[in-house]
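Sequence in, structure out. Go.
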Amino acid sequence: MSMCDEVNSLEIIEFTLSNNYYGVPTSLINEILAYQNVTPVPNAHPSVEGVFMPRGKMMTAIDLGNCLQVGIADKDGFFVVTQVDNMEIAFHIDSVVGIHKVEKEEIRDIIHFAPTDGYIEGVIKIKDKLVILLNFENIVRDVSPEVLTIQE
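Output:
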């Protein structure tokens, strides 16, 4: 594969949430964990599900369904763990569909059709469905996790 091909393509992980399809670049994902119980944090943003400690490391869990106003994620679901502003953040999702390589020119902008608050990078058609590409950094910044910065 030439360097030009790498610049024009993007590898994304596709996942589901409330029967909708979403994706983020695989480069942003640290790991995927099976759902674990979380401890609610009083007075946190409504989209913050709470905190939990996989492998003894404190992590904030964000209910992505609540953030996107599409419902609450399945308790048998998963956490997609990413790093934002030197913090590991877990996004609660329903299921992982797979990994796809997409060409950047295939990503369609929907900013003119729906207010996105910077949450949506675009939409891509994969097989017979539309996959909404999310911007986890903007979601985290909106939820304001600095109130949950817990020192280990």
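Check: Residues 147-152 have pLDDT under 50 and may be disordered. The two ends are 43 Å apart (CA to CA).
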